[in-house]
Amino acid sequence: MSPEAALELAEEAGLDLVEVAAAANPPVCRIMDYGKYKYEEKKKKAGGKTKGSELKELKLRPGTDEHDLQFKLKQARRFLLEGDKVKVTVMFRGREMVHREHGYKQLDRVKELIGSLAATESPPRMEGRFLSMILVGNREEIARVKKVEAEAAKAAEAAAAQAPAREDAKPGPDAGETHA
Question: What is the rounded CA–CA span in Å between residue 157 and residue 7?
Fold first, then answer.
């Protein structure tokens, strides 16, 4: 096919004429969407890359209440299970700097409550008005926790499938009627 005829076909189809093998005699061309082809190639190239661990930060105060601390620890646990590192920071304001021991107690409490799920990568240290430490997940413990959660989810799913429909959930014979 002549190059002019191929170009005409490509234009009619709204596609591009792309030279595939220039070294061949005659050169081999293909009618395709070149932008889509480049996108697919880029995707293939990037497909082998995996997500590295990110550093997530939890900010506390020396007087953070128990409920708020539990909520933050739930987030930290989720981050650790996803494979991320967690930086726990205690922020001091004004005269709180005099009582740094409250911040250290807060970080010790976090370590105690997270337990064996994480190990301390960097111990607590002061940086200006911030006291922080970095926690990294314990791979064996994370694998065990994920296995337990998966088994619990399967058990709950099986129980839901076996549970009979509730009688009181079904509409009665006079459903939709109003009584005055």
Answer: 58
Q: What's 55-140's CATH class?
A: alpha beta
Q: What is the pLDDT of residue 76?
A: 92
Banded pLDDT at 163 (limits 50, 70, 90): confident
SS3 169: coil
Rg of the Cα atoms in the chain: 31
Helices (H), the chain: 3-13, 34-46, 66-81, 100-114, 139-162
Which CATH class for the 3-37 domain?
Answer: alpha beta
Q: Tell me which residue of 78, 85, 75, 128 sits closest to 103, measured CA to CA.
A: 128
Domain boundaries, the chain: 3-37, 55-140
Model pLDDT, residue 175: 56
Q: Is residue 163 within 8 Å of 156, Cβ to Cβ?
A: no
Whether pLDDT at 178 is above 90: no
Specify the pTM. Answer: 0.58
Widest CA span in the chain: 91
